[in-house]
Amino acid sequence: MPDQQAAAPAKSAISTRRLKLAGAAGLVLAAVVVAGGLAARVHADQSLKTWTHDQAIPTVALAPVAGGGHADLVLPGDVQAFYTAPIHARTSGYLKRWYADIGQRVKAGQVLAEIDTPDLDQQVLQARANLATAQANQRLSALTAKRWEGLVAQDAVSRQEADEKTGDLAARNSAVNAAQADLARLLAQQSFKRITAPFDGVVTARNTDIGQLISVGGSADAALFTVADQHRMRVYVSVPQNYSALVHRGLSAQLSVPEYPGQTFTASVVNDAQSVGRNGAMLVELQIDNPDGRLKPGAYAQAAFKLPAATTTTRIPATAILFKHGGPTVAVVGGDGRVKVRTIAIVRDLGTEVEIGAGLQPGERVIDNPPEALSDGDLVRVAGAAQGAAHAKG
Length: 394
Prior knowledge:
This protein is rod-shaped. The chain has helices at 2-56, 118-153, 159-191, 385-393, and strands at 59-63, 70-87, 93-98, 105-106, 111-116, 194-196, 201-206, 213-214, 225-240, 252-256, 265-276, 281-289, 300-308, 314-317, 322-324, 327-333, 339-343, 345-349, 353-358, 366-368, 381-382. By secondary structure, the chain is of the alpha+beta class. The strands form five sheets. It has a six-stranded antiparallel barrel with strand order 2-9-12-11-10-13. Strands 6-5-3-8 form a four-stranded antiparallel sheet, with no helix packed on it. Strands 20-1-21 form a three-stranded mixed sheet, with no helix packed on it.
């Protein structure tokens, strides 16, 4: 009995220690769990900040930067025949018949049409009669003057009367000359009854038909035919003032027309206006042989000139330029991914591309379509750089 009473306090003490140890272990475990949660939250917050920072770095694309060389200047051109002649009538009447239609090749002097001119024919007959009358009067006046000169020698008539007969002869001579000139004028006008081709070429227009009234000098005086000499063509191009000094006589250009896709024709500059028009361009004439007649007058063409570029220039897309208050600029990416904004000097605007004379060197990394808010020192990520590095490592 005394032994049992002594063992009871011992067991109670052991249980108390065990409970204390279990409580301490629970506290430690709770502390570990809390510390782990806090650490995970701190790590998540740090990862979020890093991801947010990375997302704030803009990703940019690079523009191609090319050195000097040749640049193509493509301009619209107007193709015209070497000679073009709208043929008008010189005498009024009715069209009797025509002999040449559109597309027909004709020779110089070939008759294209005839005009029926009854009024003019009657005027010619009247002029012939007037000339005959004037000549008859002239002969009579000449005989009279000769007789009176003989009578003056015999003192049968006065000198005054003889001079009057001589003056009448001079007037009759003038009347004959006037009648001859009038007849010649009408005969020349009558010769225009036959419409002829002025040179070898092709009939490109016929604006008349049999029986049509032909009026000269009025509002209805339209060209009856149009003849074009197409053995050689002229091409007129308006060159902007910026390039007028580079397009000179002897420079070649490649012509392309819509009806022959993929084909080009070589033309040469032969003339220029030496003057800049109100449209800010200089008119330039090119010529090209056309033996097979493939090029047509009035056609639309594009002329591509190869213009030399200075060795100190570089070419970039026009989309890479930022226009700021200080002038045109570009954004260049350094090796550390930082942006450097540079002011540039544009030499020539080629449309989709521009030539830079200063501020940029070939091989530098220029941002294409840069954001307006981009400034010096900004950090950027180049699109495709990570993939390229991964491929390089592999």
